[in-house]
Amino acid sequence: TEPTAGRVQLYGRVASLLEVGTGFHPELTGRENIYLNGAILGMKRTEIERKFDEIVAFAEIERFLDTPVKRYSSGMYMRLAFAVAAHLEPEILIVDEVLAVGDAAFQKKCLSKMGAVAVEGRTVLFVSHNLAAVRALCKRGILIKKGIIEVDSDVETAINCYLSEDNLSEAAIVWDADTAPQSAEIRFAKGYVLNDSGEFASQVDHRSEFFIVVEYEVLKPIRNLRVGFFLQTIDGTPICGSNDPDAWSTIVRDPGYYVSSCKFPGYTLNAGAYVVSFGSDRPPSDEPLVTTPVCLSFNVEVMEGHGSFNRVLPGVIRPRLNWNIQRTTSALSKS
């Protein structure tokens, strides 16, 4: 998208991770792309060679170093792209939401590396809706809404302003055909949360079951279609993800309208605000067909406390557990 107005002043070498694949030539190998990216950043070959082994070790792609990157999975692609951008010593490192394609261990590794880059006195511009990661990494926060800077302050103030705004949907969303998240194979239509009475619910009783539901249209016959969701707290702490297990049976879904529903039993979540995003893919590939940003929000209310004093328990889950208490004459031991 072309900018409409404004200007940017840059002082120093810039490396950016804006989307999977940016800056890599698909026909070149991983090894060749490391040198290509270094050259684009203005580095000499000797500088790149000095960092080469660190980049490869960080990306964990030693076995595939001489394979064309067009054969990499999105996760491998991103591991190499981040390793190159972070280790070739840019003065300014720009990172968008792209880390979402990595696994949890690599995301943690990337956040640690970005923290180290910042400590060295270089600038990290981190764009994310993962508030837990923003809070862990950043000291300064900028809240942008519709292209306008609304808040420029310390990170806690910026996060609190973001959470206080009505910037998340309620417990239901309806997409129209033109703007719906879609691919050639599937188009999302609706997403919503239902309570145990089958009603749309932005407030859920922690004792009662509830449902996360997505409606979608299959546009052409597709094998192994898997549809699922990701649940997290409003501040970005991951809770769980789940998907339709039918995809693993290699069935073909014909064109038509489908509804996928996932039931959460009562006594699962503790009191708090939660948000949901949806996605679809075709296992065993990890390439997504369609993903959505956070699009649903709901609150869980604790309707009964714990024990005779009705205390609120800490944590994000609230299981109803069974205890067994016995009086014994001596200490129990396992041999």
What's the number of domains? 2
C-alpha geometry: globular
Q: What share of the residues lie within helices? A: 10-25%
Roughly how many Å apart are the termini?
Answer: 68 Å
Any idea of the CATH topology of the largest domain? Coagulation Factor XIII, Chain A, domain 1
Beta-strand content: 25-35%
Question: What is the average per-residue confidence, as pLDDT, rounded to a whole number?
Answer: 84
Short recap of the structure:
The chain has 335 residues and is α+β, with helices and mostly antiparallel strands. The chain has helices spanning 30-40, 45-59, 74-87, 104-119, 131-137, 155-164, and strands at 14-17, 92-95, 123-126, 140-145, 148-154, 172-174, 186-194, 203-205, 210-218, 222-223, 226-233, 238-243, 252-253, 256-264, 272-281, 288-291, 296-301. 22% of the residues lie in helices and 29% in strands.
